[in-house]
Design brief:
Elements: H1 66-74
């Protein structure tokens, strides 16, 4: 089964206001599903952040972009 059939890649701009070069940082130790780096074998991963860009009939209008906001803070 190819997981790329079920998940859309994300497009993120990398932060430019600071630079951390240490390999131990969180951002250096994650995989992001992008057009250039699609999902591969998932057995090596322990956690996944998935977002649903949808907020129709939601009590929280505007929540469709919540996953991108979380990603921007984490990465």
């Amino acid at each position: 089964m190819d997981l790329n059939d079920y998940f859309n890649p994300v497009e993120l701009e990398k932060p430019t206001d600071y630079f951390i070069s240490r390999n131990e940082t969180f951002g250096k130790n994650i995989r992001i599903n992008t057009l250039n780096e699609p999902i591969d074998e998932i057995s090596n991963y322990h956690i996944a952040i998935m977002g649903v860009p949808e907020d129709r009939n939601s009590y929280n209008t505007g929540s469709a972009g919540a996953s991108d906001q979380v990603r921007n803070k984490l990465y």
